[in-house]
Automatic annotation (TrEMBL):
Chain ranges of the MotA/TolQ/ExbB proton channel domain: 58-171
Protein name as annotated: MotA/TolQ/ExbB proton channel family protein
Protein's membrane topology: Multi-pass membrane protein
Pfam families hit by this protein: MotA_ExbB
Bilayer-spanning residue ranges: 96-116, 136-160
Family listed: Belongs to the exbB/tolQ family.
Alphabetical keyword list: Cell membrane, Membrane, Protein transport, Transmembrane, Transmembrane helix, Transport
Subcellular location, record wording: Cell membrane; Membrane
Amino acid sequence: MSIVALTILLIKLWQFNLPRPEGARAVNRSLSLWHKGETEAAIEQLNTRQTVPAVLLLAMRGMRKGADQTLLREEVQRVASYRLNQLKLLLRPLEVIANLAPLLGLLGTVLGMIEAFQQMESAGSRVDPSILSGGIWQALLTTAVGLAVAIPVVAIHSWLERRVERIAASLNDAVTQVFTHQPKPQQSGKIANAA
């Protein structure tokens, strides 16, 4: 279980840190340009490798083309759900490992205690305390290993889940800004000076 958990952790760290799903800088620059009416420049700031910028790019292109907002919202929601599910991928197995590791350790403890008491019973009246202490030591070791696997996995799982929630909130905020703030049309310098 520890090897599987470590493998999943490495995959998730790569997924969350290499492409940086939030793309916060690009999103902020793009939204700033979008609000100023510089739609083409806003779109150029975004890429499709990162989760939030990719969905934001879809929303901006659709709004710029004048697509039906209801259909565009549905498409954006579909793509956003797909992208977020990609980030949630393998979180469930981490949760299962976090729940099963201490239980397997406890099972090992119970089986070890059963074996220690069977050895005590077979020894009869010549019970040697070392038989009992050796069996208990081995039994408790399995619980310790189960907890040693579960504790970091629970912490990592919680951190990854929180990260996905923050990305979802950022995604929702960015897309909402695109739909609610129509870009101001740019005016040429002469018109602005004449006014």
